[in-house]
Amino acid sequence: MSEGLEKKDFHRDAKLLMALLLFGLAARILYALDYSGTPLYHFPIIDAGYHSFLARLASEGAALPGGAYFKPPLYIWLLTDLYGSVGGKSPAAAHIFNTLLGLGVVALTFWWGKKLFGRWPAFAAALFVALYDLGPFFEEQALAATLETFTYI
Question: Within 10 A of 42 (CB to CB), how many other CB atoms are there?
Fold first, then answer.
C-alpha cells in the first residue's frame, strides 16, 4: 500500500515540477523576446562583454591571458566550449545555456525544498524562483551568476 502512495506522490511531484518549469520557461521566453531587441543582447558590456570576449577568443584558438583572473574562470571555460561547439558567433548559445541552468535552479529549489520543508513550501519557493524577474535578467547576459546559483544549490 505504501508503494502505491509513493508512486502517487512521485507523479504529483512530477506534475508540480513540470508546471513550475513551464511557468519558468514562459517567463524566460517573454523576457528573452523583450531583451533580444536591445543592443545589449548583441553587444554585451562590462562583465558580460568580458566573459564573451575571452570565450570567443579562446574558442577561435587564442590563448586566454595568463596570470590571475579578476573573475572565476570556470564560466569563461564553459562559454569557450559552448562557443566553440556552435561556431563562436551567436550570443544565443550563452543565453540558452544560462536559461537551462536557471530552470535547473527552479527544479533544485523544489527538490531541496520538498526534502527539507514538504511539498507546498517547496512549490511556493520554486514558483517564486521561477517567476522572479532577476533570474531571467541574469540568465540573458553572459554572466556567471546563474552558474554560481546552480552550483551553490
Answer: 11
* Global pTM exceeds 0.90: no
Per-residue pLDDT of the chain (153 residues; tens, 9 = 90+): 466 667 788 889 999 999 999 999 999 999 989 888 888 777 888 888 888 888 888 887 877 777 656 777 788 888 888 888 876 667 788 888 899 999 999 999 999 999 999 999 999 999 999 999 888 888 888 888 888 889 898
Burial of residue 92, with CB atoms counted within 10 A of its CB: 0-12 exposed, 13-18 middle, 19 or more buried: middle
Residue bearing cell 586566454: 64
